[in-house]
Amino acid sequence: MKAEQLSPAAAAPNGPNARLIALARVGVALMWIDNASWKVPPDFGRGDPPRTLYRWTLNGIEYEVFAPWARFLETVVVPNFAVFGWLVLALEASLGAFLLIGLFTRLFALLGIVQSLAIALSALGAPHEWYWAYLLMMLVHLLLFTTAAGRFGGMDGLLRPLWKRRSLAHRLMRAAS
Amino acid sequence: MSGAHRFDRAAITLGLASIAAVVFALDLGEFRFMTVGGASIAVALGLGGLAVVAGAASWRPLTVLIGIGFAAAAALQLIAAAVGGDWMGGNLSTMSFWIGLAAGLVLAGAAPRNQTSDERE
Asked: Rounded distance, CA B57 to CA B52, Å?
C-alpha cells in the first residue's frame, strides 16, 4: 500500500460527507467552549467547600481510578493548583477555539484525547459517572484526527496549500493540520 | 459571494458566526453554550458585522484589525472573569469562542494570496 493511500487526503470525502465532518468538529468544539466557563481564575474552585475544577481534581484522589495518577494529583497538581488551573483553562479554551475554526486540527484532536484521558482518570471513579462518556470523548477526537477534520470547512483546508516549503515550520504546520 | 476569495468567505463565515452567537443572550437552558449579554452583545454584533463587511469587500487590513479586536475582547473577558467582574457580560466560554474568531480572522486577513483563478470560486 502506498503512503498516500494511508493519508486522509487519499480518501477525502466531499459534498455532504465533508460538511458532516465539519459539523462534528464544530460540535466537539462547542463541548470544550461550553466547559471553559467553569474554570474560573484565580482560585479555580479552591475554598471551603471545594467547588468546580478543584472539586473534580480532589475526586481523582478520593475516588482513585489509577493509583499513579491519584498520586500525581496529590503530590504535584494540588500543591500547585493555581498553575494547574491556568493550564487547564488555556488548554480547554484553545481546544474550543481551534477545533471551532479547524486550525491545527490534528494537533488539537490529539490534545483532546490526552485531556479526555486526564479527565477520565480524575472523574471516572466518582459516583454516578458513566465511563462511556469519557471513552466517547476520546473516540470522537480520534475520528477528528483520523479524518483531519479541519481540512473540511476549516482553516486547515485553506492554509495547507500555503505551507508548501520544506522548512521546519511548514512541515510542522502540515503535520498539525 | 460566489466570486469571493476563500479567505474572504472565511471572514464572512466567522462574522456571521459571531452575529449568530447573540442567540446565547437567550436563556437556552442546557444548550446555552456561552453567555452573551451586555457589552458582549455589542462586541458580537459590531465586530461580527464588520467582519462580514470586510470579507465581502475583501478589505484585508480591516479583517486583521477585527481579529485583533476579538483578541482584545477575549483578553478583557478573561480579566473580567479573573477579578470577578461582569462588565463584559460574557463568560470564559465566550472568551474561548472569541479566541477562535480572532485567530481565524487574523489568518484570513494576513494570509498571502495567490491571485490565480483556482483560488477563486
From this structure: 8
3-class secondary-structure state, position B74: helix
Alpha-carbon distances, residue A173 vs A153, A163, B64 (angstroms)? 17, 7, 21
- Rounded percentage of chain A residues whose pLDDT exceeds 70: 94
Q: Half-sphere exposure (CA, 13 Å, Cβ side) for A141? A: 23
Asked if A36 and B33 come within 8 Å (Cβ–Cβ), the reply is no
* Chain A residue with Cα closest to B24: A34
Q: Could you tell me if A155 lies within 8 Å of chain B, comparing CB atoms?
A: yes
A15: pLDDT strictly greater than 90: no
Cβ contact (<8 Å) for B7 and A37?
A: no
Q: Quick one: how far is CA B51 from the chain centroid?
A: 7
The residues in B 75-114 lying below 8 A from A, measured between CB atoms, are: 78, 81-82, 91-93, 95-97, 99-101, 103-104, 107-108, 111-112
In chain B, where the domains are located:
14-111
Locate B4 and state its grid cell.
469571493
* Residue at grid coordinates 503530590: A75
| pLDDT, tens only, B65-112 | 999 999 999 999 999 999 999 999 999 999 999 999 999 999 999 999
User: pLDDT digit string (tens) for A155-173?
Assistant: 999 999 999 999 999 999 9
| pLDDT band with cut points at 50, 70 and 90 for residue A11 | low
Rounded Cα distance, B59 and B64, in Å: 9
